[in-house]
Amino acid sequence: MSKKTMRRLLVVGATGQIGSELTLELRKRYGGENVVAAGHRRKPSENLVSTGPFIYLDVTQKDDVEKIVEDYKIDTIYQLATVLSAVGEQNPQLSWNVNMIGLYNILEVAREHNLVRVFWPSSIAAFGPETPRINTPQDTVLIPTTMYGVTKVAGELLCNYYFLRYGLDVRCVRYPGIISSETPPGGGTTDYAVAIFYEAIRKKRYTCFVREDTVLPMMYMPDCIKGAIDIMEADPSQIKHHVGYNVAGVSFSASELAAEIKKYIPEFECEYKPDFRQKIADSWPMSLDDSVAREEWGWKPDHDLASMTKDMIEKLTKRFSESTL
Ligand code: SER
User: Fold this and answer.
1) Which of 24, 35, 181, 309 has its CA at a distance of 20 to 30 angstroms from the CA of residue 55?
2) 33 lies in a domain?
């Protein structure tokens, strides 16, 4: 097998917000049989089980990861299984186990089986209150105050270590909050930017758990998928950083998002009742400088607030009207 060619892929966390859509896109590119989907807690969608192999996997069990890699002759892994920030603050021990032991198992199996490439998403949660919040640079202070963020910084360092020590080609991006219409996120701080669409369309009201002036970096799912695929398909010589690359989509406040939605649903009302997630949001950047990713491997997002909002409303409205038929 050529050391450079990705042929048999495993997506761990394939039933999650990103995994459920990324797996389908990877199957279109590499062939359904060549992209194995592994999920744990959530039930897989019809689409996921009908377009290629699906298996249950607890990423904290290294032997189980190894068995799948051997059985399916995997050469590339997308490791997306994670406990997000808000759930992580309710259960920091679970967050550490899934996020750190899970990543460690993937990297170890990749090393032992000489895999071609690994993708692992870091996050804006890697930053903390001491990080510059506007146009956060690629190389900056990484002192997060959530367990999720701790696992992201430690994970970035671990990925970089496996590259330096073992030559394992691990590639990482620091994703902002991801907005999507297919599969809801599970317990993050940026989840309000997804839930607001569901509630605006179904109930015309939403109670937002962060203040209206809260600005966070966000990204629409098509850009998220494009980033995950582009960085993995880039020539190894282009990838000069094996910690996470900053990748920006669009930054807006909660009230700016509500106002954009109101253009389509004029009767929509949003109220703001900040809870414990406000403190997490306040510790994260408002916008990211992603010039290094743009220069090194050609990163460029396609969506802004207006195009994302339009597409989200169209997709969800169609889905909800079909499901009530
Ligand atoms: N969406 C994530 C969260 O809110 C950030 O990476 O936890």
Assistant:
1) 181
2) yes
